[in-house]
């Protein structure tokens, strides 16, 4: 009996970790999640600063041209809500990245409203007021005053996850266009690659910190980013060959136009030469007072012009053979 109890205690010591080992595992997981979160912050910041070049051009031209303001307005709402979520949870890494994102998107929206045409400016200003002032303010007030405890985190987390899934699903139209046109011209590789990385890193972070609301939308983003990269690999060569064929066709049309112009010039030259030849012929005269020298000169000039005409025809044929094989 004593031996049995001794063996069971030994087994418990081997298979059940002590408090010290559990504390070490918890510290390791916390350190790993913080490290992964830092990487996620860096990738997300790269995505947030990517429109700087676009808006620098907007400021220089003082026009938004054909750019749309809706993506920046919705991204401002999403980053603001995620910042609020990170504050009530709390999660410093979520607050830091989305706080910077909200500031950058606010700057983009402000610049867009400054340089947009009047009609677009009014429409986008109304949309920004409804979403980023009215809706966001209502969510914050209701969450702080009417909802308490875990329910507050649940409701805000669901809203954040829904907005993030919508943002990740936005490139689906670009993917459909790639499949339809068999060209990756309108789906930049770097953007797809960073969306893939962003979704993957934040999905890993969500697993480590056990946050369902961060994990689900970023897992969707990871899957969609992977699909975009696969499409890019499939249609990259087809897109390049299509561009090459288009360039060849354009080059051929240019050559044909030049040939047509050259042919037209040759025909014009021949007509001019024939007219000049007709003008150079001696007028018939009733009086037969022409010297032998004048007759010889006229015949020699006619032969020379005929030779020029034949050389022009031969040159035209040779050019035609070279340009149109």
TrEMBL record:
Region (Disordered): 253-290
Keyword terms: Membrane, Repeat, Sugar transport, Transmembrane, Transmembrane helix, Transport
Membrane topology classification: Multi-pass membrane protein
A Pfam cross-reference name: MtN3_slv
Record-linked InterPro entries: SWEET (IPR047664), SWEET_rpt (IPR004316)
GO CC terms, sorted: endomembrane system; plasma membrane
Molecular function (Gene Ontology), one example: sugar transmembrane transporter activity
Subcellular location: Cell membrane; Endomembrane system
Listed transmembrane segments: 25-49, 70-88, 94-115, 127-147, 153-174, 186-208, 214-235
Source organism, top-level taxon: Eukaryota
Keyword RNA-binding attached: no
PANTHER family documented for this protein: BIDIRECTIONAL SUGAR TRANSPORTER SWEET16, RAG1-ACTIVATING PROTEIN 1
Described purpose of this protein according to its UniProt entry: Mediates both low-affinity uptake and efflux of sugar across the membrane.
Similarity remark: Belongs to the SWEET sugar transporter family.
Protein name in UniProt: Bidirectional sugar transporter SWEET
Organism: Populus euphratica (Euphrates poplar)
């Amino acid at each position: 009996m004593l031996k049995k109890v001794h063996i069971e205690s030994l087994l418990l010591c081997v298979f059940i970790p002590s408090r010290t080992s559990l504390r070490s595992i918890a510290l390791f997981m916390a350190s790993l999640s913080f490290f992964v979160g830092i990487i996620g912050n860096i990738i997300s910041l790269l995505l947030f600063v990517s429109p700087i070049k676009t808006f620098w051009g907007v400021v220089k031209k003082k026009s938004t041209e054909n750019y749309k303001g809706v993506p920046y307005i919705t991204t401002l709402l999403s980053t603001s809500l995620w910042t609020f979520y990170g504050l009530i949870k709390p999660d410093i890494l979520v607050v830091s990245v989305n706080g910077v994102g909200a500031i950058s998107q606010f700057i983009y929206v402000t610049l867009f409203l400054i340089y947009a045409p009047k009609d677009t400016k009014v429409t986008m200003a109304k949309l920004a007021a409804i979403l980023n002032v009215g809706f966001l303010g209502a969510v914050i007030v209701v969450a702080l005053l009417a909802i308490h405890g875990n329910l507050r985190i649940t409701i805000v987390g669901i809203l954040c996850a829904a907005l993030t899934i919508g943002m990740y699903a936005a490139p689906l139209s670009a993917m459909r266009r790639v499949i339809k046109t068999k060209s990756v011209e309108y789906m930049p590789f770097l953007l797809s690659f960073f969306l893939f990385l962003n979704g993957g890193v934040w999905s890993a972070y969500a697993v480590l910190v056990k946050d369902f609301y961060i994990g689900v939308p970023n897992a969707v983003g990871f899957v969609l980013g992977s699909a975009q990269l696969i499409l890019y690999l499939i249609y990259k060569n087809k897109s390049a060959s299509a561009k090459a064929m288009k360039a060849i066709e354009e080059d051929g049309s240019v050559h044909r136009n030049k040939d047509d112009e050259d042919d037209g010039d040759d025909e014009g030259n021949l007509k001019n030469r024939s007219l000049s030849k007709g003008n150079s012929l001696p007028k018939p005269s009733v009086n037969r007072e022409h010297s032998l020298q004048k007759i010889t000169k006229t015949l020699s000039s006619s032969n020379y012009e005929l030779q020029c005409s034949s050389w022009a025809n031969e040159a035209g044929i040779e050019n035609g053979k070279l340009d149109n094989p």
